[in-house]
Design a protein that fits this description.
CATH architecture of the largest domain: 6 Propeller
Distance between the termini: 37 Å
CATH superfamily of the largest domain: TolB, C-terminal domain
Strand content: 35-45%
Radius of gyration: 18 Å
Structural class: mainly beta
Number of strands: 20
Strand order of the largest sheet: 1-20-19-18
Oligomer: single chain
Number of domains: 2
Number of helices: 1
Shape: globular
Largest sheet: 4 strands, antiparallel
Length: about 300
């Protein structure tokens, strides 16, 4: 018998429940509720985290990701403001509450060239990072969501140098692992790529699809996030705003502007959780900010 998790109290299947069901090979008896229409202008600030630190060093976070149940936060951090970048893991004693975060472990010195992102395969068994060399690399985790078990997959990497400039920012992967979006700080652009094999970034698997100029909204974009259904895309501005666009299936050639939200702490990375209606942003002040979003 396969154990079937209970639905949430609102009748929706949460991200954590979807992950458990996927691991068990269970097909939901009812359709998974897609993202609702995020009213980005109605976003409200909640709180800031403590200074991002491993106890010895402080970090400027330039990549941000949460475990689907909200009990872990992962950060690509510039150590003491230098280009040397570490991947940091924090545990949250209260799910999704960044004030309850405490440092756990790290992968040290993943790059000396300014790490630009921290993106996970949705089952927690692989993570991807990017730096100013414009090369994306992959780590595998023998225990899901545990950075202490991470090892570099040296055969699985690719260069985006033919498309992006030396300051790419915070890549986003679709939930099926076959679409990648990257914002480009120098080119004032958003790029879309496709993967012929899900979660495989080896040379030859990744192909360029399209680009979108951000100059009508912001120069030097700092990050991008999208809904699981690919019909809503959120672009983090140079400093202080996030813009929402609607489209179909991650198609950045058909983006339609649909509102924005401003806050001084919206700076260097963005992450959103629809199930709990949360948004998070990393800042150059060595903190992470938490927001409530609405539908």
């Amino acid at each position: 018998m396969v154990w079937l998790p209970r639905w949430g109290c609102n009748g929706m299947i949460t991200s954590a429940q979807k992950l458990l069901m996927a691991r068990a090979g269970v097909v939901p008896p009812t359709p998974i509720t897609p993202w609702g229409d995020i009213a980005i202008a109605s976003t409200s600030y909640v709180q800031n985290s403590s200074t991002i630190s491993d106890g010895s060093n402080s970090y400027w976070p330039n990549g941000l990701f949460f475990k689907p149940d909200g009990t872990k936060m992962f950060i690509m951090g510039w150590r003491n403001g230098t280009g040397t970048s570490d991947l940091l893991e924090f545990s949250l004693s209260v799910a999704w509450d960044i004030s309850s975060a405490s440092y756990t472990t790290q992968v040290s010195s993943v790059t000396s060239n300014y790490g630009r992102g921290c993106e996970f395969k949705r089952d927690g068994t692989a993570l991807f990072f990017y730096d100013n060399s414009r090369v994306m690399c992959k780590y595998t985790l023998s225990t899901a969501w545990d950075l202490s078990t991470a090892s570099l997959d040296s055969s699985n990497s690719t260069s985006f140098a033919t498309v992006t400039t030396p300051q790419p920012r915070n890549p986003f992967f679709s939930e099926d692992g076959k679409t990648v979006l990257i914002s480009d700080n120098n080119n004032d652009a958003l790029y879309q790529f496709s993967l012929s094999t899900a979660w495989d970034i080896s040379t030859g698997s990744v192909s360029y699809v399209a680009s979108f100029s951000t100059t009508s909204y912001t120069t030097h974009p700092r990050g991008v996030f999208a809904s699981s259904t690919g019909d809503q895309i959120f672009l983090l501005s140079n400093f202080g705003a996030v813009y929402k666009f609607t489209t179909t299936d991650f198609d950045i050639t058909s983006l339609v502007a649909d509102g924005s939200y401003s806050n001084a702490n919206l700076q260097s990375a963005i992450f959103m959780d629809y199930d709990n209606l949360k948004m998070y942003s990393a800042t150059i002040s060595n903190i992470v900010s938490e927001y409530d979003i609405t539908t």
